[in-house]
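Observation: inputs received (chain + cytidine-5'-monophosphate).
Thought: call the complex predictor directly.
Action: predict_structure
Action Input:
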Amino acid sequence: MSLKNKNILLGVCAGIAAYKIPTLVRLLKKQGANVRVLVTQAATKFVTELTLSTLSQEPVYTDIFPDRLSTEADWTKHISMGEWADMYVVAPATANTIAKLSAGISDDMLSASFITLRPNKPKLIFPAMDGEMFTSASVQRNLAWLSENGCTVINPESGELASGQCGTGRMPEPEAIVKIIDTTLETTFHPSNLEKKSIVITAGPTREKIDDVRFISNYSSGKMGFALATSAVRRGAKVTLVTGPVHLPTPEGVDRLDVESTEEMDLAVKEHYQSCDIFIGAAAVADYRPVNHVTGKLKKNSETMAIDLVRNPDVLAGFSKQKKKHQIAVGFSLETAGNLDNAKEKLEQKQLDLVAYNTFDGKTSGFEVDTNIITLIDKRMNFYELPLLGKHEAAERMLDIVEGLISDDE
Ligand code: C5P
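Observation:
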């Protein structure tokens, strides 16, 4: 993909890594991109507006309100910036600006234009700060919110930091940033064959009631299913997200149906059997439910207790069993490492077109965490081994492979 004529908004915050930004602007301009730089007031202490303006051949903006008000174009600049841009890059992103962007504070040109960016345009955030700051609870919470809401957060690299300490916090080099911008633009702007396709995605855990106050469930957070929904909408798909109880905001443009039990999830999915082109089972569905649901609260009047369980319907297998030739079924197979054969078995048993063999280690992959290690296996036994990736990045790679399945069939 060429960066030629792409409009890039570049937000620069006050971190020492800002010294790399003139080089970044120069590299982007060399490749033909149009770059408008927005700096925070404090960032001007690290890099001058004159340098950035000379290299970008554009005025550099800090405040929303210009010194002189002359035309309407001056005082609505933050809106036209968001309309103009094909992409928004924040580099380096400091803890302060990350907090503002996640909270929707818009008190300067950088933060206000971030909000006015059109929803289908990519936002790349490059946090760079001291290691202790980066791993602090508030920064991690704010970054998690941003990635759950359509931003791509590129984790900083480890190495020597300005404080003299070694740790995670270094912004990638300008050449690496250009590469990431290029790949992101390519995935965003290449025509996707998911456009206008109906995709149903299940996500999160299900809950099976024991009595009125207790249930059987699991640790699924729903993050993988929600990331898939976000990426699918960005590719122009019509997405229905059937989710068990999770604490995640609804991705923009997604039609969300909240359910509690497996039977409810099954019913909701059945409604879409005919209309959906692709079904992705990302939910961690409870395989069994108590035979009896006790009204009120079960009493503890014995040392041991047995609860009779009965098999739940298999939502994904139910869809596959009746699916038409053009419909695609994708499932997950969460296994302890080394159990790839179980995933292959599931592919066959559930008549899937693609299975995501997903290992869990409790730290970097599986439930609750933000990253995942996945190997995809399609029905022709092609293997796609993905490295450890953020769930949003893993979702993008998974959908690239789903797109390949559509082209194969068409
Ligand atoms: O058999 P297992 O639970 O390992 O299969 C996992 C896959 O099947 C996941 O894609 C999950 O969403 C789906 N599944 C389902 N209904 C069930 C059990 C699993 O849709 N009752």
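Thought: report the result.
Final Answer: The mean pLDDT is 91. The pocket of cytidine-5'-monophosphate is lined by residues 202, 262, 281, 283, 285, 287, 312, 314-316, 331-333, 346 (CB under 6 Å).
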